[in-house]
Design a protein that fits this description.
By secondary structure, this protein is of the alpha/beta class. It contains 11 helices and 12 strands. The strands form 4 sheets. The chain has a 5-stranded mixed sheet with strand order 4-3-5-12-6. A 3-stranded antiparallel sheet has the order 10-7-11, sandwiched between helices. It has a two-stranded antiparallel ribbon with strand order 1-2.
Amino acid sequence: MQLKIAMVHIMDWNDIRFVLAVAEQGTLQAAARELGVNHTTVWRRIQALEKSIGSQLLIGDRQGYRLTDTGEEVIAYARAMSANVDAIGRITSGKTTEMKGLIRLTAPLLMASQTIPALVQEFQQQHPAVQFEILSKNNTLDIERREADIAIRATNNVPANLIGRKLGFSRWSLYAQPSMQVNTSSLEELAQLPLIGYRDFNAPAARWYAQQFKGIPKAVTCSGIETALACAKLGMGIALLPHSGTEGLQELYQLPDEFGAGIWLLTHKELRSSARIKAFWDFVLEKNEQQSLFTVG
């Protein structure tokens, strides 16, 4: 036990978080993306840490990196440290009463590019001392770990530890450029036309689409909704898309609501008392009530 305590004392938290990132992400490249640094920086910091404590923490193989027995013990302490650091950050941010500072806002890519900028602009006209980071990611950032302060997410499963308000509902349909002159809504007949596919997209609607048109060659395959939308607007094929941003496209077939999702405004309960976060939270709710910004389809 004394050795473990001594080891933790001589470690720098800034070094430990590099080991934690590799342990959670599996590779140097993925950890580097998570931390926003070069992968050589990640490797250099881990090597320096291992040298300082005189023990190997990670072992590399063809699949990536795995923890040694010592690494497992260190990571257990590191995760506890990370949780405590994040909790301190939430509590101190949540007590802020001044209308200034940074708000990290995450939303799906389409929403972040089409709806969020105008909201942020209008809010900053009223509160110019508030800065924003707009994190346009489809994967869920962790509010617990302060990766984001406020999230707007399409989901049917709101985490119990977050405060949430439903903003609307997102539906999915099959769309085509009118120039394709599609005059049918029959799935069997649509399967005979050029299709735009997805890769590594696991939403319920995407799973339905993949099963419905299984084995049919796709004219083009995309890794995200944004690219599929752009391809559909160019008339490259029929695409499965949420209703947001599909102006100018022809709706061919609407999926049942069971494949849709509620659109939620989310934050951590400890951040809700922050003046700037509460003000933006209330601002989004008010604007949505006036303009139904997040009710699509």
